Amino acid sequence: MATLKLEIVTPEAKAYSDDVDMVVLPGFEGEMGILPNHAPLLSLLRPGELRVKKGGQEFALAVGEGFVEIHQTAVSVLTDMAIEEAKIDENATQAALDRAQAALKNKDLGGEEVAAIEAAIAKSLAQLNLKRKKRH
Is 119 helix (H, G, I), strand (E, B) or coil? Predict the structure, then answer.
Protein backbone atom coordinates (compact mmCIF):
# COMPACT_ATOMS: atom_id res chain seq x y z
CA MET A 1 0.00 0.00 0.00
CA ALA A 2 1.22 3.49 -0.81
CA THR A 3 2.15 5.82 2.02
CA LEU A 4 2.63 9.52 2.66
CA LYS A 5 5.71 11.16 4.14
CA LEU A 6 4.30 13.25 7.00
CA GLU A 7 6.40 16.01 8.51
CA ILE A 8 5.13 18.25 11.29
CA VAL A 9 7.34 21.21 12.14
CA THR A 10 6.94 23.79 14.91
CA PRO A 11 9.16 26.82 15.59
CA GLU A 12 10.93 24.77 18.28
CA ALA A 13 11.58 21.47 16.48
CA LYS A 14 10.46 18.81 14.05
CA ALA A 15 7.57 17.30 16.00
CA TYR A 16 7.00 14.28 13.75
CA SER A 17 8.48 12.71 10.63
CA ASP A 18 7.48 9.30 9.29
CA ASP A 19 5.68 7.43 6.52
CA VAL A 20 1.96 7.09 7.28
CA ASP A 21 -1.16 5.63 5.68
CA MET A 22 -3.48 8.59 6.24
CA VAL A 23 -3.65 12.00 7.92
CA VAL A 24 -6.78 13.81 9.12
CA LEU A 25 -6.20 17.55 9.54
CA PRO A 26 -8.23 20.32 11.18
CA GLY A 27 -8.52 22.52 8.11
CA PHE A 28 -9.90 26.02 8.20
CA GLU A 29 -13.06 24.88 6.38
CA GLY A 30 -13.36 21.60 8.32
CA GLU A 31 -11.57 18.28 8.66
CA MET A 32 -9.55 17.03 5.69
CA GLY A 33 -8.66 13.38 5.21
CA ILE A 34 -5.47 12.96 3.20
CA LEU A 35 -4.55 9.69 1.51
CA PRO A 36 -1.64 8.89 -0.84
CA ASN A 37 -2.02 10.38 -4.34
CA HIS A 38 -4.07 13.32 -3.03
CA ALA A 39 -4.26 16.31 -5.34
CA PRO A 40 -1.72 19.02 -4.49
CA LEU A 41 -3.14 21.53 -2.02
CA LEU A 42 -2.07 24.37 0.25
CA SER A 43 -4.39 25.16 3.15
CA LEU A 44 -4.64 26.92 6.49
CA LEU A 45 -4.88 24.88 9.69
CA ARG A 46 -7.00 25.81 12.66
CA PRO A 47 -6.28 24.63 16.20
CA GLY A 48 -7.59 21.14 16.76
CA GLU A 49 -6.82 17.44 16.54
CA LEU A 50 -4.51 16.04 13.87
CA ARG A 51 -4.97 12.27 13.54
CA VAL A 52 -2.41 9.91 12.00
CA LYS A 53 -3.12 6.39 10.80
CA LYS A 54 -0.21 4.02 10.32
CA GLY A 55 -0.16 0.24 10.15
CA GLY A 56 -3.65 -0.18 11.58
CA GLN A 57 -2.87 2.11 14.53
CA GLU A 58 -4.10 5.66 15.08
CA PHE A 59 -2.73 8.43 17.26
CA ALA A 60 -3.44 12.12 17.56
CA LEU A 61 -1.73 15.40 18.30
CA ALA A 62 -3.19 18.73 19.37
CA VAL A 63 -2.06 21.31 16.81
CA GLY A 64 -2.30 25.08 16.66
CA GLU A 65 -2.68 27.45 13.76
CA GLY A 66 -0.53 26.91 10.71
CA PHE A 67 -0.31 25.76 7.15
CA VAL A 68 -0.34 22.40 5.40
CA GLU A 69 1.17 21.64 2.02
CA ILE A 70 -0.03 18.44 0.40
CA HIS A 71 1.56 16.58 -2.50
CA GLN A 72 0.79 13.13 -3.88
CA THR A 73 3.39 11.48 -1.65
CA ALA A 74 3.98 14.00 1.16
CA VAL A 75 2.22 16.17 3.71
CA SER A 76 4.12 19.05 5.35
CA VAL A 77 2.56 20.74 8.36
CA LEU A 78 3.94 24.02 9.69
CA THR A 79 2.25 24.90 12.97
CA ASP A 80 2.86 26.91 16.10
CA MET A 81 2.04 23.90 18.33
CA ALA A 82 2.06 20.10 18.06
CA ILE A 83 1.62 18.15 21.30
CA GLU A 84 0.97 14.46 21.89
CA GLU A 85 -1.89 13.64 24.24
CA ALA A 86 0.46 12.08 26.81
CA LYS A 87 2.45 15.32 27.08
CA ILE A 88 -0.56 17.56 27.77
CA ASP A 89 -0.79 18.75 31.37
CA GLU A 90 -4.54 19.04 31.80
CA ASN A 91 -4.41 21.15 34.96
CA ALA A 92 -1.88 23.63 33.55
CA THR A 93 -3.81 23.87 30.29
CA GLN A 94 -7.10 24.47 32.11
CA ALA A 95 -5.42 27.18 34.21
CA ALA A 96 -4.08 28.85 31.06
CA LEU A 97 -7.55 28.71 29.51
CA ASP A 98 -9.11 30.26 32.60
CA ARG A 99 -6.53 33.09 32.62
CA ALA A 100 -7.07 33.78 28.92
CA GLN A 101 -10.85 33.84 29.28
CA ALA A 102 -10.56 36.23 32.23
CA ALA A 103 -8.17 38.48 30.29
CA LEU A 104 -10.62 38.62 27.39
CA LYS A 105 -13.15 40.37 29.64
CA ASN A 106 -10.86 43.41 29.88
CA LYS A 107 -12.57 46.19 27.91
CA ASP A 108 -9.30 48.11 27.33
CA LEU A 109 -7.79 45.52 24.98
CA GLY A 110 -6.75 46.40 21.46
CA GLY A 111 -7.49 44.29 18.41
CA GLU A 112 -4.10 42.56 18.39
CA GLU A 113 -4.37 41.70 22.08
CA VAL A 114 -7.83 40.22 21.58
CA ALA A 115 -6.58 38.14 18.64
CA ALA A 116 -3.62 36.82 20.68
CA ILE A 117 -5.90 35.89 23.59
CA GLU A 118 -8.40 34.19 21.27
CA ALA A 119 -5.55 32.20 19.69
CA ALA A 120 -4.38 31.11 23.15
CA ILE A 121 -7.92 30.04 24.01
CA ALA A 122 -8.21 28.01 20.78
CA LYS A 123 -4.89 26.22 21.45
CA SER A 124 -5.86 25.46 25.05
CA LEU A 125 -9.22 24.08 23.93
CA ALA A 126 -7.53 21.90 21.29
CA GLN A 127 -5.30 20.38 23.97
CA LEU A 128 -8.10 19.88 26.49
CA ASN A 129 -10.44 18.34 23.92
CA LEU A 130 -7.78 15.81 22.88
CA LYS A 131 -6.82 14.97 26.48
CA ARG A 132 -10.40 14.54 27.62
CA LYS A 133 -11.41 12.59 24.51
CA LYS A 134 -8.66 10.04 25.11
CA ARG A 135 -9.69 9.67 28.73
CA HIS A 136 -13.30 8.80 27.85
Answer: helix
